[in-house]
Structure formats: C-alpha cells, structure tokens
Write a structure and sequence with these properties.
Layout lengths: L2 E5 L2 E3 L5 E8 L7 E7 L6 E6 L6 E3 L7 E6 L4 E6 L8 E9 L4 E4 L3 E5 L2
Parallel strand pairs: 2-11
Antiparallel strand pairs: 1-3, 3-8, 4-5, 4-9, 5-6, 7-8, 9-10, 9-11
Length: 118
C-alpha cells in the first residue's frame, strides 16, 4: 500500500521558516521523482519544487527560488522542503507527490497546511 505522509506545516510569521517532511512507503522510493505542490484557496495546484531520482537534480518555481530548498534522504524514504523567508503569499496546502513515468506511478499525500501571517 502506497503512503505519502506530510508533516511540518503550521502557522508562521512572515520572514519565518518551516521544514516540511514527506515520509514515503509502499514503493521503491529511489525510482521516483519527488515533488512538492501547493494549492492556495481559489487557485490551481502549482509545482513548488521537484527533486529527481537519478542524480538528485532539482527544479523550483520562480516564486520560491532562493528561499526554498528541496532535498531527499533515500535511506529514510523521505523528502523535505525547507522554506525560509516565508511570505503571506506562500500560504497554501502543500502536497507531496511521487511520480515515475517508467514505473507508471503517480501518488499524492493528503497535504499539510502552511499559513504565513502576522
């Protein structure tokens, strides 16, 4: 059974930091690209950051470049999103995604809420 369990969300003041975690199970973690998406109220879900399975290359949305860092610990089957210098516009539900076109897998977590407000 595939599971992606996010944690680490919460309320933080502008300029603050949070680290999101996504613990994966039920599939071969190293075969999958891992990503974080977010969805703000009334908006479409958007890609925040991705880290690829083979050489660990990364990709970021322009809006978070220089502030967010995605990383993965293959020994722990976990992907992280370090979020610094948070802004009110970062407020959203954040979702973990695991995807492999070769293995035909596309899995989502249940989401964790991030609220940036003073």
């Amino acid at each position: 059974q595939v599971k992606l369990v996010e944690s680490g969300g919460g309320l933080v003041q502008p300029g603050g930091s949070l680290r999101l975690s996504c613990a994966a199970s039920g599939f071969t973690f190293t075969n999958y690209a891992m990503s974080w998406y977010r969805q703000a109220p009334g908006k479409e879900r958007e890609l925040v950051a991705a880290i690829y399975s083979l050489f660990g290359g990364t990709n970021y949305a322009d809006s978070v470049k220089g502030r967010f860092t995605i990383s993965r610990d293959n020994a722990k089957n976990t992907v992280y999103l370090q979020m610094n210098s948070l802004k009110p516009e970062d407020t959203a539900d954040y979702y973990c995604n695991a995807r492999s076109t070769y293995f035909k897998g596309d899995y989502w977590g249940q989401g964790t809420q991030v609220t940036v407000s003073s």
